[in-house]
Specification:
Layout lengths: L10 H11 L14 E7 L3 H16 L1 H5 L1 E7 L3 H13 L10 E4 L1 H9 L12 H4 L4 H6 L18 E6 H11 L9 H17 L12 E3 L2 H11 L5 E4 L2 E4 L3 H9 L2 H6 L9 H6 L5 E5 L9 E3 L4 E3 L2 E5 L9 E3 L4 E4 L4 H14 L2 H11 L11 H11 L5 H13 L4 E3 L7 H28 L4 H5 L5 H18 L3
Parallel strand pairs: 1-2, 1-3, 5-8, 12-14
Antiparallel strand pairs: 3-13, 4-8, 4-11, 6-7, 9-10
Amino acid sequence: MRHTGKMTISLCLAAALFAGAAGCGKKGPLDPANPVSLTVWHYYNGSQQAAFDALVEEFNNTVGREKGIYVQSFSQGSVSDLETAVRDSISGEVGADPMPDIFSSYADTAYEVEQAGALANLSDYLDKEELEKYVDSYIEEGRIASDGTLRIFPTAKSTEIMMINKTDWEPFAAATGVSLEDLQTMEGVTAAAQAYYEWTDGLTPDIPGDGRALYGRDAVANYFIIGMQQLGVEIFQVENGKLTLNTPKEELHRLWENYYVPMVKGHFGAYGSFRSDDVKTGDLLMYTGSTSSAMYFPGQVELEDKSYEIEYIVLPAPVFEGGEHYAVQQGAGMVVSKSDETHEYAAVEFLKWFTEPENNLQFGCVSGYLPVQKEAGSTERLDQVIADSGLEVAPKTYDCLTTIFREMDNMTLYANKSFENGSAARKILEYHLADQAAADREAVAAQIAQGASPEEAAAPYVTEEAFEEWYVSFCDALNGAVGK
C-alpha cells in the first residue's frame, strides 16, 4: 500500500470539525444500555476488507455489546480516495460525509492533521503497561505530537521481502551458477541481473541485444530511505520537528549504480503498475515489495501465446554489501478524531481489541500485514492462532510472515520521523531517479533497435559525468520539495 497525495488542513477548518463533533456523545464511562456508535474509514479492499469487516462484526457481537460500543466500517477505496474523503469532510464540502471517529492514516498525513490539532491524544487512554505490549518502533512512529504523545495507533504493519519466480529462476541458476545466496546483497542482485540479461540474450544469438530484465522493485522511495540507512546515513533526519537533509555523494552513488545503471542497461525493469504485474507477464523473475503484496504474486506467467504455472520463493529483502541490516517499517495505523471523551475512549477500546494477538494475527493471515504486539510476532504464535481458529491461510502469505518472523532478531525496522512537506519529499525519492531511468532506458533501447550494441547504447548514460548531473538535479529537487 502506498501513501499518495498531501492533505493541507487549516486551523479554522479543524475548528469546524470540533464544532461538528461536539455533543456527539456524553462524557464519562460507557453505558451498555446506550451504546456509542463509531465509524471507521479505511482503504482495505477485497479479502482484506472482508477480514476486517468480519473482525468488526465479532467485536460488535462480543466485547462491543458488553461495553456499549458499536462499530461500523467503510472502505473508501484507495489511500488517495480515503485522504480525499477526509479532506472533504473537514472542509465541509457539499455532500461530504461527516468526519469518522477513526480512520486509517499514514504518518505524513496524520502529521498534517495533527498540526491542525484535529487528532485525539491516545496517550490519555493507554497506560505504560499497555504501551509496552506493542513493538517499540511502532509506538515511536505514532508519537507525532510536538510533546511526544501518541497520535497514531499501530494496527497492522508491513516490511519488504523478495519474491522469486522459482520455476524460471532454476534453469538460469543451473546454467550460470548464480545462487540464491548471491541475492542477499543489492550488489549481488545487480550482478545476477547482468548475468540473466546476458544469458537470455545468448538464447537467441540471431537477435542481438534482446536480453531480459531479472529484477524490479516497488516503492523506490523505500530503496532510498532504507538503502541510505543501511549505509549509515539517515536521509531525513528530524529532531524537535526540524529536518536536516543528508545527501552525501558517495552513498548516493552506490544507490545510483545499483538502481539507475541496471535499469538503463535493461537488467532491471518496471513495466506495469506493480512489479508483481511484471512477474505475471514474464517481464521479470523477481522483485522486492511489501509483505502485504504476497497475495498478488502470480501463480502463473501469462504470455501472448501461452501461460504456465509457476512456483515461488520468498527471501528477505537484499541489504547493501557491508551495510547494517535495516528494513522498512511501513503500513498505515489508525487515528482517532478529536471529539469527546466517550467517543475517544470507545475508539481506543476497539483498537486495543483489534490489536490483541489472536485478532491481529487473524487479520494478518489474510492481509499479509505483521501483527503489532510483541508476543504475536512469532511462527509459533501464528501457528497456534491458525490451529485454534481453523483458518485457511494462503501459503504465500504464510511464508512471507514467517520469513520476517525469522529475521526479526537480525534486522532493525526503520521509518523516518514525520516532518513538514514529508509527502512532497517522498515523491522526489519515488519518482526523480525512476522517471529518468525509464526515459533513458527507452533511448538506449531505441539505439539498440537501430543496431548499436547494448554496451555502446548505454555507455553515455552510465558515466561519472552522468551521475554528477543527476546528483545535482536530485539535491535541488529534494531541497525544493522541503522548502530549503
